[in-house]
Structures are given as structure tokens and as C-alpha cells.
Design a protein that fits this description.
- The structure holds 2 protein chains of 2 kinds.
- By secondary structure, chain A is an all-beta fold.
- In chain A, strands 2, 4, 5, 9, 10 and 11 form a 6-stranded mixed β-sheet that branches. In chain A, strands 1-3-8-7-6 form a 5-stranded antiparallel β-sheet, with no helix packed on it.
- In chain A, strand 4 and strand 5 form a beta hairpin.
- Chain A is globular, with a radius of gyration of 13 Å.
- Chain B is mainly beta.
- The termini of chain B are far apart.
- In chain B, the strands form 2 sheets. In chain B, strands 2, 4, 5, 6, 9, 10 and 11 form a 7-stranded mixed β-sheet that branches. In chain B, strands 1-3-8-7 form a 4-stranded antiparallel β-sheet, with no helix packed on it.
- In chain B, 0% of the residues lie in helices and 57% in strands.
- The chains are: A mainly beta, B mainly beta.
- At the A-B interface, strand 4, strand 5 and strand 9 of A face strand 5, strand 9 and strand 10 of B.
Chain lengths: 113, 110
């Protein structure tokens, strides 16, 4: 039973343009959300996170938006660069007393030159 | 300086064998985890230890036994390996809500 869903398995974007990755969740107890980036044959690398008390968090080229009523979050990458080509995983947890991360299936981003 | 390291990186073995994967973190974190990434690429939690105490055990077969000799290490021992155990196993650690992952161990059971 997947509680975190990334319905787009892949995304292709031109260098310099915006990449928008989407994630939906079903568990209303989730209150902390993270995005990880993964290159082939490497472990997931933490990218950015957001607590449920916020609706936006920004870090350089990366911005995460959270819509709690819709149980939806998105990651915006602006501008997209060739090094951004990777698999992006959305993850969620129930807060500091729940250490489990539930992951989405991932979205493969390809940035075209 | 590797924050979360795993050994070995690749492991090829025969069905029925017993094998161990080691994980070490130098981040000073209290909590460590094992995740399994299956052929469909889903990452699923298996175990979590906090200060050497087991806090999460996600319906994993008894053939899998984690061991934490100290809070910087979390090893995974697998008995009687089966074909379905072939996967990538990731170790992670955290001191709060953000988890940091190791590079993974690619296990292939023949």
C-alpha cells in the first residue's frame, strides 16, 4: 500500500528551464516531507525538506511547495542544469516520533542541452 | 570523509549461503536504518536502531538479523539467502527527521 505516490515516472526538460516534480500522499499523519536525488549506483542524497507547518521552503535553485489540504507537494528546480539529471524521490514521515520514511517510486529527470 | 559507508559495495553469492553487510556512520547520529530497494525501485524500510536499541522491525523474515554493536555501526546479517533477497540494501542514519544514506550494497543471489 503506497502512501507516497509519484505518478510521473519520467520528466524531460531543456537546460535552463523549470523542472516541476509532483508527489501525492495519502496518510494525513505525515508531517515532514523530503526530496532526495539519486544518481545510478549511488545512495539517495538529501536535497530539501519541508515541515507541515510551512507551505514553501526554498534553497538556492530548489523550492518545495506543500499543499496539505490536497495532500500534494512539488519540487521546482530553476534553472535546470545537466547535473540535475537523476532520479528524484519524494519521502514522508510522521514526525520526530516516527522515524520511518515512506518513499515514492521516483521520477527520472533528464535535462537536455 | 564518507559520512555513511557500507561494505561490501557488491555481493554475489549462492542461494542458501549466509552473508553480512556492514554499515558505519561518522556523523554522530543516534539512529540508523536499513532499507531495501527492490527490482521495482521502491525503497522500503526494514529496520531502525536508536542508540543500539531496535525501534522499527518492518515484517522482515527472521532470516534477516540486524546488529548494532555501538551507535555508529549497524550491520545486517542474512541467513539462508534466497533468490528474492537480490536487491540493493541501503543504510542510513539521522539525528532528527532528515536521514542520510550510504552508497548501497548490491546483493545478487544466484
Amino acid at each position: 500500500d503506497q502512501q507516497v505516490k509519484q505518478n510521473s515516472p519520467s520528466l524531460s526538460v531543456q537546460e535552463g528551464r523549470i523542472s516541476i516534480l509532483n508527489c501525492d500522499y495519502t496518510n494525513s499523519m505525515f508531517d515532514y516531507f523530503l526530496w532526495y536525488k539519486k544518481y545510478p549506483a549511488e545512495g539517495p542524497t538529501f536535497l530539501i525538506s519541508i515541515s507541515s507547518i510551512k507551505d514553501k521552503n526554498e534553497d538556492g535553485r530548489f523550492t518545495v511547495f506543500l499543499n496539505k489540504s490536497a495532500k500534494h507537494l512539488s519540487l521546482h528546480i530553476v534553472p535546470s542544469q545537466p547535473g540535475d539529471s537523476a532520479v528524484y524521490f519524494c519521502a514522508a514521515s510522521g514526525g520526530s516520533n516516527d522515524y520511518k520514511l515512506s518513499f515514492g517510486a521516483g521520477t527520472t529527470v533528464t535535462v537536455r542541452a | 570523509d564518507t559520512a555513511v559507508s557500507q561494505t561490501p559495495k557488491y555481493l554475489v553469492t549462492q542461494m542458501g549461503n549466509d552473508k553480512s553487510i556492514k554499515c558505519e556512520q561518522n556523523l554522530g547520529h543516534d539512529t540508523m536504518y536499513w532499507y531495501k530497494q527492490d527490482s521495482k525501485k521502491f525503497l522500503k524500510i526494514m529496520f531502525s536502531y536508536n542508540n543500539k536499541e531496535l525501534i522499527i522491525n518492518e515484517t522482515v523474515p527472521n532470516r534477516f538479523s540486524p546488529k548494532s554493536p555501538d551507535k555508529a555501526h549497524l550491520n545486517l546479517h542474512i541467513n539462508s539467502l534466497e533468490l528474492g533477497d537480490s536487491a540493493v540494501y541501503f543504510c542510513a542514519s539521522s539525528s532528527g527527521e532528515t536521514q542520510y544514506f550510504g552508497p548501497g550494497t548490491r546483493l545478487l543471489v544466484l
